[in-house]
Amino acid sequence: MKPATGHYLILGCFCLAFCSGCTSYKFLESEHHPHTWKKLFLVHHWPVTVCKMSENDCKDPPQYWTIHGLWPDKVDECNRTWHFNVTEIKDLLPDMRQYWPDVLHSSPNRTQFWKHEWDKHGTCAATVEPLNSQKKYFGRTLDLYQKLDLNSCLLKVGIKPSSTYYQMTAIKEALTSVYGVTPKVQCLPPEEGEEVQTIGQIEFCFTKELELRNCTNSEADSYVMPNNWNFGPEELSVCNDTLTYYPAQVQFYN
Ligand SMILES: *[C@@H]1O[C@H](CO)[C@@H](O)[C@H](O)[C@H]1NC(C)=O
Ligand SMILES: *[C@@H]1O[C@H](CO)[C@@H](O)[C@H](O)[C@H]1NC(C)=O
Ligand SMILES: *[C@@H]1O[C@H](CO)[C@@H](O)[C@H](O)[C@H]1NC(C)=O
Ligand SMILES: *[C@@H]1O[C@H](CO)[C@@H](O)[C@H](O)[C@H]1NC(C)=O
Ligand SMILES: *[C@@H]1O[C@H](CO)[C@@H](O)[C@H](O)[C@H]1NC(C)=O
């Protein structure tokens, strides 16, 4: 669990790679504009937990954290006439299938999940220049995911799927020590007869300039993004600081 010194080196590389790509963007902003947002959540989910939440057939979930989406806070469905068009992201499809799969419906040419993410979140994110097309929105999300490299970072700090439980505070502290920012971690509450929550999502926050920032709520940031991508009757919520299960395999309890 203890981060080795090597991580700071890796983090250093990450920062260099990251910041060299950044430009300063200026945006006209009105407090009253209905489509104003302040930060983006890059949402990773743990496919095993997603499968556990669903009644669908979901046979062999990937054993790595995949992308759920890149979500601006406060807003959704900002432009209903800007339709998802998979041809626009055809160059990205191999990476999309690997890193942004529809965990619940594994048919390779299903694009419904990406359409949903575009319609609901992408059309809002697209108000800023670095994300203002489908190719940029999906492409930059894949870039951010690869630069964060959550899967490697978790392994390096010794957090891997296990039948023994983790303290949530230890997971949060490890993430904060590696990335220098506080992410938002979501869990599936304990089911009846269970005592531990199950980790489900790890969200990192970014500024409009696509720089990492803390996810902590500031000023009027208290609006909680409803999650309409329906995984079933169960819902994720912010993890409590209690014992946490990070499952390697899907186990159904009924
Ligand atoms: C909505 O998207 C359409 C199609 O891309 C575009 O022509 C229009 O300007 C957009 N509307 C707004 C308010 O951004
Ligand atoms: C989808 O995008 C492709 C490539 O940009 C374009 O040629 C095609 O006309 C678009 N289809 C629709 C229905 O807009
Ligand atoms: C799925 O993709 C394959 C090729 O990858 C294609 O032959 C097939 O027609 C596609 N199916 C649908 C329903 O689009
Ligand atoms: C956290 O604790 C609260 C209060 O006991 C509970 O309502 C909530 O479901 C718990 N969340 C998780 C993810 O276990
Ligand atoms: C995040 O918060 C911590 C302490 O709460 C602070 O030390 C750090 O500088 C913040 N990072 C950023 C990028 O704002």
Automatic annotation (TrEMBL):
<dbReference type="GO" id="GO:0033897">
    <property type="term" value="F:ribonuclease T2 activity"/>
</dbReference>
<protein>
    <submittedName>
        <fullName>Ribonuclease T2</fullName>
    </submittedName>
</protein>
<dbReference type="Pfam" id="PF00445">
    <property type="entry name" value="Ribonuclease_T2"/>
</dbReference>
<keyword id="KW-0456">Lyase</keyword>
<keyword id="KW-0255">Endonuclease</keyword>
<dbReference type="InterPro" id="IPR033697">
    <property type="entry name" value="Ribonuclease_T2_eukaryotic"/>
</dbReference>
<comment type="similarity">
    <text>Belongs to the RNase T2 family.</text>
</comment>
<dbReference type="GO" id="GO:0043202">
    <property type="term" value="C:lysosomal lumen"/>
</dbReference>
<keyword id="KW-0732">Signal</keyword>
<dbReference type="InterPro" id="IPR001568">
    <property type="entry name" value="RNase_T2-like"/>
</dbReference>
<keyword id="KW-0458">Lysosome</keyword>
<feature type="active site">
    <location>
        <position position="68"/>
    </location>
</feature>
<keyword id="KW-0378">Hydrolase</keyword>
<feature type="active site">
    <location>
        <position position="121"/>
    </location>
</feature>
<dbReference type="InterPro" id="IPR033130">
    <property type="entry name" value="RNase_T2_His_AS_2"/>
</dbReference>
<keyword id="KW-0540">Nuclease</keyword>
<feature type="active site">
    <location>
        <position position="117"/>
    </location>
</feature>
<dbReference type="GO" id="GO:0006401">
    <property type="term" value="P:RNA catabolic process"/>
</dbReference>
<dbReference type="InterPro" id="IPR036430">
    <property type="entry name" value="RNase_T2-like_sf"/>
</dbReference>
<keyword id="KW-0256">Endoplasmic reticulum</keyword>
<dbReference type="InterPro" id="IPR018188">
    <property type="entry name" value="RNase_T2_His_AS_1"/>
</dbReference>
<keyword id="KW-1015">Disulfide bond</keyword>
<keyword id="KW-0325">Glycoprotein</keyword>
<feature type="signal peptide">
    <location>
        <begin position="1"/>
        <end position="24"/>
    </location>
</feature>
<dbReference type="GO" id="GO:0005788">
    <property type="term" value="C:endoplasmic reticulum lumen"/>
</dbReference>
<dbReference type="GO" id="GO:0016787">
    <property type="term" value="F:hydrolase activity"/>
</dbReference>
<dbReference type="GO" id="GO:0005615">
    <property type="term" value="C:extracellular space"/>
</dbReference>
<keyword id="KW-0964">Secreted</keyword>
<dbReference type="GO" id="GO:0003723">
    <property type="term" value="F:RNA binding"/>
</dbReference>
